Amino acid sequence: MKSILEEIYYGEKGFYEKIKPSEGYLKVHKEYCQIHDKLEEGLNDEQKKILDDLFLATGGLEDKIACTHFIEGFKIGLLVAVETFG
């Protein structure tokens, strides 16, 4: 069972769809796609699948660490609020 903070992070609760990607994100995403395409050139089908698997695994790792940072940041923010108003 996901925690409420994980549900917020993954857009299952709250207004996640209203958050627009920043210009910086869009720039990095474009660069990422260009690098992927360059790496894919000249590879056979098996090598392309391995490359795609690597990129998906990398994304999974980034997702887990980003979620952990989101949750820890939320907890720290709440502690700051408790101290401020307590």
Describe the biggest sheet?
Answer: none
The number of distinct β-strands equals: 0
pLDDT under 50 segments (min length 5)?
A: none
The secondary structure category is mainly alpha
Strand-residue proportion: under 5%
Fraction of residues in helix: over 70%
| First-last Cα distance | 31 Å
Order of helices and strands: HHH
Radius of gyration computed on alpha carbons: 18 Å
Number of helices: 3
Shape assignment: elongated
Q: What is the average per-residue confidence, as pLDDT, rounded to a whole number?
A: 90
Key terms for this structure?
mainly alpha; 86 residues
Can you describe this structure?
The radius of gyration is 18 Å and the shape is elongated. It has 86 residues and is mainly α. The chain has helices at residues 4-9, 23-40, 45-85.
Would you summarize the structure shown here?
Helix content is 76%, strand content 0%. The chain is mainly alpha-helical and 86 residues long. The chain is elongated, with a radius of gyration of 18 Å.
Q: How is the topology of this model organized?
A:
Layout: H1 4-9, H2 23-40, H3 45-85
